[in-house]
Amino acid sequence: MREESMISKGNSLNLLDEFELILESDPLIDEVGFIHPSQFVTLNKEATSSLKHEDANFWSRDHKLAISTDVLLPLYKAAKDAFMHAISQYKRHGNLSDASGYASNLESEAMKHSKALLLLSCDFGTAWNFRKLIVSKKQKIMLFLDELLLSALVLSNSPKSEKAWCHRRWVIKMIAGKCSTLQDIAGKESELVEKIAERSKMNYRAWNHRCWLVSYMTTEQVLHELKKSRNWAGLHVADNSCFHYRTRLMLRIMEEHCHKLEDGTSDENNEIYQIWQEELDWNEALIKRYVGREALWLHRRFLSLSWIRHFTTTLGDTSNYRACKSSINGDISIFHG
Amino acid sequence: MGAYWGLTTLDLLGKLDALDSNEVIQWIMKCQHESGGFAGNIGHDPHLLYTLSAVQVLALFDKLNVLDADKVANYISGLQNEDGSFSGDEWGEVDSRFSYLAICCLSILHRLDKMNVEKAVNYIASCKNVDGGFGCTPGGESHAGQIFCCVGALAITGSLHHVDKDLLGWWLCERQVKSGGLNGRPEKLPDVCYSWWVLSSLIMIDRVHWINKDKLVKFILNCQDTENGGISDRPEDAVDVFHTYFGVAGLSLLEYPGLKAIDPAHALPVDVVNRIFFQK
Known about the structure:
heterodimer, A: mainly alpha, 3 domains, B: 12 helices, prenyltransferase (chain B), Prenyltrans (chain B)
């Protein structure tokens, strides 16, 4: 018995070595999946470039990595044991001076194992935390960006992983003050959510992340997002999250508009009126095309409520808005029809 | 957390003695970090999630006295941010769920005075949406799980006046689908776990009569695997301890015979809550 378990432990370690070697040899892997070994054959037919790695356990090509479901359990156990051992060593000796090289060796071991582990168990908080600790010690932009790559890779297989989304927010907050490309990042993040939302429908965590990004966007970006997400929403009328995202964008536009009215830097409602009017018309068309969809009606509830609140109560206090208001008052009949 | 789900279920069924309490308590205390917070298992990092679960399990066993309550309370209150919100751990992610965890835990420990309750309540109120529900952060989409956390936290702090009960009640009762089960968001499939989150929220805002309780009882019972006993998310699916807890807790809220009553805000059996608050 003992000999048998020794052998299986040895195999698991080989398995982990092999897995980590594949990860190291191709840092550009952008998609990972767990598949039944019989599907490896199908994958070979579809692939375009030459095979990078294949045996009974792993398959890698075109920067895509497949792990056989047969080895998941022993591989996970080996990765977990290796990581937990590495961090306990690190905690014991990691604070020694770096000169010896011993500490940095312990650190890179633990980083390597944490990556393997997170690809197998996406919500392993202690492993995500360890990576945050190391990266925040070094304070190098490149290392922060690597964390965005790793969490995107984890999300390719586990699109609902709360910890992976949370890790991205942490990275973005850390580089927010240091990196001039923050708006680019917000734009790219938004695209990532859309890509993931396409494969993973009604994904609350993904859309919540997109809502969170709104506060990092410029006004132009917000308007652009509103325009861009409309097409997607029209094709996914059951996905309440996308309509909520539009709600978030519209409220942000409304907020800025109200600030301008207060400052006196703007005295007209035309732009905002037009945005609301277009959304109401579009929503009406969708409701007529797709009968009985809850998300569409809830969106209409939001549109009408905010319309009534903004255009019929906050307006009219100043003479400037009167012309605008009278035309809107006429239009409010659209809700009674 | 798994320990909390399993043990609370056993207690609701009147079978808490099926496990060796000393063994459980020893294990829990080994999960405590020097900061005062608890981890999900030995050697892992602490988080508010596991800290509440640890305190709840100790409360079930009437063993809160093994804790250094001030130390745990310091860990929790140390996670409150300037705007009143709570981070889940030292890494700073903010979520209205963490506000519930902090408030519920400090309430059980009789240490609510260690945090700024007014600011915490205002932060939760800022997560309210135009549909009456609550999201993770201000502007986040309403979700039944988040709603439970926000309503629960407001209930514990006596701040339910921040809730528009009719508006929220309407959104919540629309979660009931034809099969009698409840979903957590518009257009989603029903899931037993929402029997807890939606139902407890409806009870706390006094609108539970707006759903069909008999149909919900039938839905939950249909999700039980009658051979091995557990409950799944939907009929015919594989069972797990998470859905078993939410099914049993839901049935308890529906006053199903043979189950102890459960407190909708603290998520502990009523007799345990009474022991905490009325016997000192």
